[in-house]
Amino acid sequence: GKYSSATGATDVAVCQDCGTGKYLPLEGNAAESDCMLCGAGKYSSATGATDVAVCQDCGAGKYLPTTGNDAEDDCRLCDRGKYAAGSGSTACSKCAAGKFFNSTGSSSADACFACGTGKYSILEGATSSDACLKCAPGGYTDSAGSTSCVPCQAGYADLDVDASTECSVCASGHYASVGMTVCDPDRKSVV
After folding, report:
1. pLDDT per residue as tens digits for the range 52-86
2. Which residues pair with 36 in a beta bridge?
């Protein structure tokens, strides 16, 4: 945990401590550059540390991309739309498509909110429910957290124009092509 550039020294007092955010497990070092930095995702406020164990992890929901940090305050909260599930994270993960998170410091993928039924999102790391788009008429999704909508098949139509319910089969003698909201009585059903 110490070093000295002095030559011919007769007293240990000439040895200087490695600074905060650093440690040095070996003896006989001549320069501060010999001190090893705490890794990314970690920090240490101790001086003269001799073991990497002095470097503490940033907590869940926080990350630290740089090395040699000396305070817990150096750990950054994950941005909105992201999370860090474990401690000692060097980066945050994005909420999956079909989900969003509107606060900072999330510590779990489970904290990401799913878009409701009838809505979808293809955007990863969404920061608000505004990223959840309603399925267009003629399509639906009946599950939360969807990344796409299912178009009504030929012979089915979105009669109630409710994006969260399945399409209805056209009555006998009526027809609807893919993605329709009405069944046309002038054509025969293809189903």
Report:
1. 999 999 999 999 999 999 999 999 999 999 999 99
2. 23
- How far is it, in rounded angstroms, from Cα 185 to Cα 179? 17
DSSP per-residue letters across 58-106:
PPTTEE--SSSB--GGGSEEPPTTEE--SSS-SS-EEPPTTEE--SS-B
Q: Do 114 and 120 touch, CB atoms closer than 8 A?
A: no
* Chain centre to alpha carbon of residue 91: 8
Is the whole model's pTM more than 0.85, yes or no?
Answer: no
Q: In this predicted model, what pLDDT tens digit does every residue of 97-150 receive, in sequence order? A: 999 999 999 999 999 999 999 999 999 999 999 999 999 999 999 999 999 999
Sign of CA dihedral 103, 106, 109, 110: negative
The pairing of beta strand 150-151 with beta strand 139-140: antiparallel
How many residues are given for the chain? 191
